[in-house]
């Protein structure tokens, strides 16, 4: 009889332990879902998404025109409000994230070597001083007053930089939006995807507003 009681007691304790273990695992998994961060691993030391202090309106999607090899295509783009104050429509297959204070990055989710750095200099910034600084620190030959799709730019510079046998096209642009100076730096490696990435970057930048 004592043996029977002892076996029953041990079975009861075993069921209780299994139940507690399952509950603990479920609670842990639930906490992970609620508090866990979804990160995006990209180069360029990209940090947290600035939209934590800005916003995305999931319902506000519109088609923007992208000119590729002489033909205009209409593509869907999502409204984004950066934590730095400006708004922009971001195309599918691209993402806007924060890089560091006062700077964001738009990068291709297919290849993050194709990206645009957005630097908000704010009110009172001297465009000529920024331009001169770029030219003084250039690694390659700078071409001035290049043609770009963005109207009324303060300056537009172009540079070709070679690194590890790869050539990258870099375009520097600055424009004022309601008194706020924003600088764009577009990086396009000399690879086939640049044929689509370049026009896509320009199409998104044309939608910037402050």
UniProtKB/TrEMBL annotation:
Alphabetical keyword list: Signal
The organism's taxonomic lineage, starting at the top: Bacteria, Bacillati, Bacillota, Bacilli, Bacillales
Protein name (Swiss-Prot/TrEMBL): Lipoprotein
Species whose genome carries this gene: Halalkalibacter alkalisediminis
Signal sequence range: 1-23
